[in-house]
Amino acid sequence: MKIAITGCNGRVGRRIVFWVLKEGHTVVGADCVIAQDTDFYDNPAFSFHPVDLKDFDATLKVFEGCDAIIQLAAFAQPMDYKTKVHNDNVVITWNVLRAAAELGIDRVALASSANVLRGVFSTEPTFHYFPIDENHPCEPDEPYGLSKLIAEMQANTIVRRYPSMRVASIRIHMFVPTRAHAYRQDYFRARGDLWGYVQMDSAADAFLRAVTVEMDRWTGHETFFIAAPQLAADEDRLELKEKYFPDVPVKLGWFESGTKGFFDCSKAERLLGWVHTDYA
User: Fold this and answer.
1) How far is residue 34's CA from residue 45's CA, in Å, rounded to a whole number?
2) Helix residue ranges, H only, 216-280
3) pLDDT, the chain, mean
């Protein structure tokens, strides 16, 4: 399969390019940043295209001939909490989706974020129940999380008009090479992340599955939380919950489930066949 990967030179993008190439696909890399230190530039199955994805015509051109798109191009945090992160992220994602529709590319995966919740970048983390699943209310109070939530609304919009399209919004957690990299000394400050993470190769596997699984597995637009089942913390989840979120209710069966984390990723397992693996 010929897969376009936007934001290919970013921290997340590089790892996903590596994974997709390893699995035998051809990659069309697109980014406004030109990198000199990547291992895959010499791979004959990879081609790089410098492009500003805020330019719709340029976006359309770079995707010609592709079978699928993995959209990663975006600012990955709120920065100054003002306008640029929100505005650029929203325009880029719409251009990618609209270009895919124009070209008849029906398989698209978007990099969404666990920050569609009111989490680590918010003034105060707010959760309605544990474990968190895709039905949990999304109430960001900052521009990065808002841009990701709007991207999901854009995906809902595009599949209504182009029902042959299938879009997955991959709500990735903290993207790290190993669980140890996600550990934080200050558990209070880390509470907005719910002490969670996703191992980067496992995240890459989720993105690739989102554009390669059989089309009859699901239709339209779906969101998926992608997080490890265990915490980057030494304390038990129940101890952390009682210490930092004592008033948040829990869903029936969570205490007895044996899971060690605060996210329910069973939807990703059911529709994508994805289960978190710590590859390193």
Assistant:
1) 18
2) 237-244, 266-272
3) 95
Q: Tokens 């109430």 appear where?
A: 139
> Which tokens go with 236?
């038990």
Q: Residue 272: which of 203, 209, 202 has the closest Cα?
A: 209
**First-last CA distance in the chain:** 27
Helix boundaries (H) for the chain: 11-22, 56-62, 84-103, 143-161, 179-182, 200-212, 237-244, 266-272
Residue 258 pLDDT exceeds 70: no
The number of CA neighbours under 13 Å toward the Cβ of 178 is 3
Residues 6+ positions from 201 with CB-CB distance below 8 Å = 15, 19, 277, 279, 280
Report which DSSP code applies to 103.
H
With contact defined as beta carbons under 8 Å apart, do 30 and 73 qualify? yes
Specify the length of the chain in residues: 280
pLDDT of residue 38 exceeding 90, the answer is no
